[in-house]
UniProtKB/TrEMBL annotation:
Name of the protein this chain belongs to: phosphoglycolate phosphatase
Gene Ontology molecular-function annotations: phosphoglycolate phosphatase activity
InterPro entries in alphabetical order: HAD-like_hydrolase_sf (IPR050155), HAD-like_sf (IPR036412), HAD-SF_hydro_IA (IPR006439), HAD_sf (IPR023214), PGP-like_dom2 (IPR023198)
Family that this chain belongs to: Belongs to the HAD-like hydrolase superfamily. CbbY/CbbZ/Gph/YieH family.
Species this protein is from: Caenimonas koreensis DSM 17982
Record flagged with keyword Hydrolase: yes
Amino acid sequence: MTGSKLPVKAVALDLDGTLVDSAPDIAHALNHALREARLLGGMDSFDVAAVRGWVGDGPDALIARAIAFMRARGDVTAHADPAALRRGFDAATLAAPLGLGTVYAGMEAALRELAAWCPLVVVTNKPTALARAVIAAANLSPYLTAVYGADRREDRKPGPALLARAAHDLGRAPGELLMVGDSIADMGAARAAGAHAAWVSWGYGHGEPPTDAYFIDAPDQLTAVVRRAMQARKSVNGQ
């Protein structure tokens, strides 16, 4: 993509692995759904470490990965019903959105400061209702202007749809947004939308950050990076 990014005037933040360490709750909801459907077989449950590697593409992808893993072990029959599992997953999430996980240390203070500078929105592959429940449980709602969740397959990052919608609603050009996240999907969404990107090192993402992305090593560095981006004028190709 070519063109110019503008100084940042709004910040979009991923949720799981960026604002909150929610992997324990996601693992709990997944195991609840599988246990309710009697699909765990010889397994007691999936541990958090395994689930952490599957987080990032939304609950449908998470469930599909769990089923594929169990089928490879011979633990799941062809009668697994992803729709029923999703209903169980959603119910467990809404019952305890952040009962086991936590907000990353320093994140609330960073959001409090940033919210005084510019609009903050969440852009996540989690469905909107689940995302809002987690955000409310984390007590982060007061700092956020809006939440954009992937309620349809075509909304999912790395596609640009959610960022484009956020930019439109905020009255900003996509190039005036900074997408902050822990995954290649976040970086891809930023690139596809023509937005700035910032990679956080503490999340669940795999792979390497793009060379034209800002790099954030701890939540207390977020405000300094946003300040730089608010003053920056960079080409989409990082030139």
